[in-house]
Design a protein that fits this description.
8 strands; globular; eight-stranded mixed β-sheet; alpha/beta
Length: 270
Amino acid sequence: MTAKAGARVVTITSGKGGVGKTTTTANLGIALARLGKKVVVMDADIGLRNLDIVMGLENRIVYDLVDVIEGRCQLRQAMIKHKQFPELYLIPAAQTRDKTAISPSDMVSITDKLRPEFDFIIIDCPAGIERGFRNAIAAADEVLIVTNPEVSAVRDADRIIGLLEANNKGPGKLILNRMKGDMVKKGEMLSPDDVTDILSIKLIGIVPEDENVIPASNSGVPVALNENSKAGIAFRNIARRLCGEEVPLMPVQDTSGGFLQRLSRLFGGN
């Protein structure tokens, strides 16, 4: 898929909620800004916005995405500048509306207006596969799929990959979040090889389980700002890969697929 001139539009999606999609969006936005990129992060989860909290910008919202679309403000008025990075902006979702308030063509129109001024537009996709999903992928040049190394999450990710292919937005790239090397070693958690064997898409990042993530999200200071956080390092490495750098994946204690027999049944032997 050929990107239009200007910013690359990257949608962050997942097959189910709770796998770390919004955390990933915030941290990639921060990490790209640290690399000197001009970045807009956009919350497409109409009615359930959270990206503003994770980025520490919830008290500065005046206008939101729906206000722009319905003409109550100019696009610039809805863009909140990050306190630490002057080239990083958030466009928040509306809190009191639902996903029918915007359409896929609205998302394409907004991103087309932003493309000339930015390097990256990162869209936080709502969980599920309905209207919100279609909105969030409409303008995407590429899609990153976040999953946890759990059977149910991987199966949901497999479904999302199929939908992306059907919408000519595939195959996407994979971020494995909350990986626990000790559990992989014991055969209690899927290994990265297990997951990529099943999903057959490129792995762009492995984010280890990190006790710093939740406090960081709650305080509005994403772990990508923490030099000592393993998850922060992983998010910064993903940002570098998005920029075209060759960065080795973090090593994970690995075993040869203890889960694969069961998974082959779940996924029809693919």
